Amino acid sequence: MVYQEYLVKSGTFSDTQLAQLETYRGNVHSIFHRTMNLIDENETLLTLSTDELDAAPQTLQLSNFFPNESIRQGMRVVGGNNCLLVDSKWRFDFKNMVSQGIEQPTFFFHSALSSQLVFVTKQIHQKKKEKVGVTAFEQAVYSKLEEVTTAFEQAILVNDKKEIERQINQLIGLGIGLTPSGDDYLTGFFLVTGMNRYPYPWVNRLLSELFSKSAGKTNSISQTQMKLALNGQARERLVLFLKEMMQETTDVQLEKRKEEVLKIGSSSGEDILKGMLAGIKLTIQLGGKK
């Protein structure tokens, strides 16, 4: 049989994970302009993307044209012989793939952290003022998001487990789009608590416990994104922003990293950024508690 073949250039898969792909069984979950998600029998997502995008967890990046106009949702995917076969027509060869790791960011209190937080937060507020053409529905969503996130952050500050759970349940699935705003905010917040050497590990443990109860309340893409964040895993540009925040740096460098995050989706980057900033702010506040 003659396959339409595509070469996998790089991926965030270990040798063990690649070996597991030899027995992969799943289906095409969703297809976009530069990415395609596969889902296996355990409801785990695997992503194929073009190498135009930054590296991301559980992702294989192609070095040539992406066939998003040909492949359809639901097509069968099987693994074997160092490749993934889609519908017995398309072959994705990862035999010569270069493994690319994304280093987990490390939390570090430094003397400029608060001022850097203020700098980026002010820029986000300014961006909000400059927005035009916001619909009444979008405004209502963002008003609700602001109300719930404020209550969520306060509940963590006083360690009110029941209230934290209530607010998480309100946030998950809140908004519209591929990854709703509430999910994106939680992704950013979870990622901060999942950082290496995070000073208050009880926060991450509690959020992980409460999040595990929310299975099925949002789509698989959001669910996977948030689960990875709790383990300190995220796409490269999010990690690079946090790394920049965790060291004394310049406004120019922070601006650069912030803009890279804001380019994610139509509004996902901004919502994730707000979550990361909220996570850092709350961590500083926890450090100031008597």
In short:
With 290 residues, this protein is α/β, with parallel strands linked by helices.
Properties at a glance:
290 residues, alpha/beta, 2 domains, eight-stranded mixed beta barrel, 9 strands, DUF2877 domain-containing protein, AllH-like
Q: Describe the oligomeric state of these chains in a short phrase.
A: single chain
Q: Distance N terminus to C terminus?
A: 70 Å
β-sheet strand percentage: 15-25%
Mean pLDDT: 92
How many helical elements?
A: 10
Radius of gyration: 20 Å
Number of strands: 9
Number of domains: 2
Element string (H = helix, E = strand): EHEEEEEEEEHHHHHHHHH
How is this structure best described in words?
- The protein is α/β, with parallel strands linked by helices and about 290 residues long.
- It folds into two domains: about 5-100, no CATH class; about 115-285, no CATH class.
- The chain is about 45% helix and about 15% strand.
- It contains ten helices and nine strands.
- The protein has helices spanning about 15-20, 115-130, 135-155, 160-170, 180-195, 200-210, 220-230, 235-245, 250-260, 270-285, and strands spanning about 5-10, 25-30, 35-40, 45-50, 60, 75-80, 85, 90-95, 100.
- The chain has an eight-stranded mixed β-barrel with strand order 1-5-4-3-2-6-7-8.
- Helix 2 packs antiparallel against helix 10 and helix 5 runs parallel beside helix 7.
- It is globular.
- The model has no long low-confidence stretch (mean pLDDT about 90).
- This is DUF2877 domain-containing protein.
- It holds the Pfam family AllH.
- InterPro entries: AllH-like.
